[in-house]
Specification:
The protein is an alpha/beta fold. 36% of the residues lie in helices and 18% in strands. The chain is built from 15 helices and ten strands. The longest helix has 20 residues, at 339-358.
Amino acid sequence: MNIRRLTAVAVGLGMVGALAACGSSDGSQGAGDSKTVTLVSHDSWAASKDVIAAFEKQSGYKVRVLKDGDAGQAVNKAILTKDNPQGDVFFGVDNTLLSRALDNGLFQPYEAKGSERIKAEYRVDQEQHRVTPIDTGDICVNYDKKYFADHKLEPPRSFDDLVKPQYKNLLVTENASASSPGLGFLLGTAAKYGDDGWAGYWRKLKANGVKVVDGWEQAYNEEFSGSAGGKKAKGDRPLVVSYASSPPAEVVFADPKPGTAPTGVAEGTCFRQVEYAGLLSNAKNTKGGKALLDFLVSKRFQQDMPLNMFVYPVTEGAQVPPEFVKYGPQAKDPETMDPAKIADHRDQWVKSWTSLVLK
């Protein structure tokens, strides 16, 4: 299953210091070609061929995509190579790591044409316009519907529910120091219970048998009993930290397609992520980069994203596919956190979480 963005994230720049010497992952050239615009992103980037072709025809630029590892790795490498960037536009820094990119001068200012259509709740950095919101998604606990029906047990609905005795030894989550959804889940608990309460909550969660694995692939496709991969792997955990868009993905990629999604979302456990793109400092093709950023907020691209990257558009008027409406609606009241607060506390929270949960 090719679900969006469910990749590991490196928390410290020191973890990827050796990456500064690395070149293009595909060995191709052309980042400085005025006819080519290069997009640097994480491995989960995806877009329909006809949509990219439409941009190329409209703009006259050929798009070159450089996929550069998981989200955190790609951000850190872009920072380390900012004086001689590998491309013109970077896509894929989210609100959990945004401050790191901005503080390190990764982007130059540019206000994309059409950005006035971006919904107000997703806008940041409005004075300098160094980044443009592109998509959003919710990190949430998913549950295996069949397991709970077979056991005549109501699935959990909230963070509070997860520490109740009836859900002991049922949840698997990802390492917050090495995984994007794992970090998002930690931030969700910090947003819910505050600076003084999140650690106590995790003590209860640990006592209730939460299992921690390295990343989303292992958690969702090996440990989780409700996913197609988990069923094959005989996973025995009916609760997993994943995304609100995971249930529609289970339907879209199934053959034959089920009448209903086999998994559900505990809406009271969601944390909202927003993903941004920006014009790289020292980009060689700034004109092409600006044109590409304009395109990323266009209605055509925004409506193409959901079934390619399993995220939601951020612009007014962009429609989502029926599968999202039916199987993966956005959480009505997700936990959120100001990127500035994430910047102030992220590293210490992760350090404390590691000592508390993994030791």
